[in-house]
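General statements about sequence and structure are easier to judge against a single worked case. Part of our work consisted of pairing the sequence of a single chain with a tokenised description of its backbone. The amino acid sequence and the backbone structure tokens for this protein are reproduced below.

***
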Amino acid sequence: MMLQQHLLFVLYSFCGIVIKEAATKNKVKGSQAQFPITQNVTVVEGSTANMTCRVDYNDNTSLQWSNPAQQTLFFGDKKALRDNRIELVRASWKELTISISDVALSDEGQYTCSLFTMPVKTSKAFLTVLGVPAKPEITGLSRPAQEGEDVTLTCTTSGSKPAADIRWFRNDKEVQGQKEVNATGRSFTVRSSVHLKVDRKDDGAAYTCVVEHVTLGSLPHQVTEVLEVHYPPQVKIVHSVIVPQEGQYFKLECMSKGNPLPEPVMWTKDGGELPDIERMIVEGRDLIITTLNKTDNGTYRCEASNHLGTNRDEFVLYVYDPNALTQHGPDHALIGGVVAVVVFITLCFIIVLGRYLARHKGTYLTNEAKGAEDAPDADTAIINAEGNHAHAEEKKEYYQGAARNVVHLKSENLGFANNYALRQEYVRCIM
């Protein structure tokens, strides 16, 4: 009986040890599964950030959120910090989520989620706050610029994080600027400048500053400044009729350009006032002569001024007699035609004369060389060289007779004979 009781005690003791070890192993395993999990968060300044902490296994152990200053925000579902921006979103044994509204740059930093086991387990989450750049401003042009002046336009934007990018455009074409970045607390102030020497072509040009940033997406900030450039006037006179005639309506337009616009313009004739104000009417920038006559001949001047200078242009008016133009109009055409014909004939004559002299000189020298051995003189050599020996004597008599005729020509007929020979040669060439 005692033996049975001893065996039963040993059995109970062994079972107790096994059960205790199993419980200890389960407790250690459960403790190892209790580990908080968090994620980093990035938000735009002024928006709301949600901070979430989770655990896969929890044996009723509390979770806690702390800010970068290690101040407790929430312990379980209990709010610990008096900040109206911080609210509880969800609280359970496996999750603790809080929200921070109207996030500021000062809220950025490392937040801690703690699980109060033995020992305490923690997980870190970094809150990144992006600063939105302020709308840009362009400075450097408080008054109209004068032509030739050096101007610097500066575009400034502040509050961006990270630093914003600035681009410049002149009308629709991008121009390069010089960028400068300065840290201001947790954000950045960015400036970009363009330097230019203005002229009249810049008057009315639109310079646009565009601020690009990750927080703005596809809608960047931009501001535009339209340049106003003052310059002295330019003047040009344009006339309405090419050939002014007596009795016609005639207008001279004074095209003046400047900034400020020169107003009004001044018309004069031959350095003095307009002589006939009844027929010579000034309307704005135009000078109108209602009916032209010969007394209107002269030099007309238009003068325009602004505070930067004066400029002028002149037009010499000559009024034609319409009857004279009608009578002499065909004569001019006839003279032009005659001149053209004379020039053409002269050129043809020079060409033919050159060919004539060149060919006969070459033929004479060549034929003289060919027949020099058998011929008593140069004429016979030329005739023999042509290969027509049967008629050599006839040709020789022909040339001798022609020579005798030339000798008996008077001086006044000699020129005619030469011209006649040249004309015959000209006719033979063109045939």
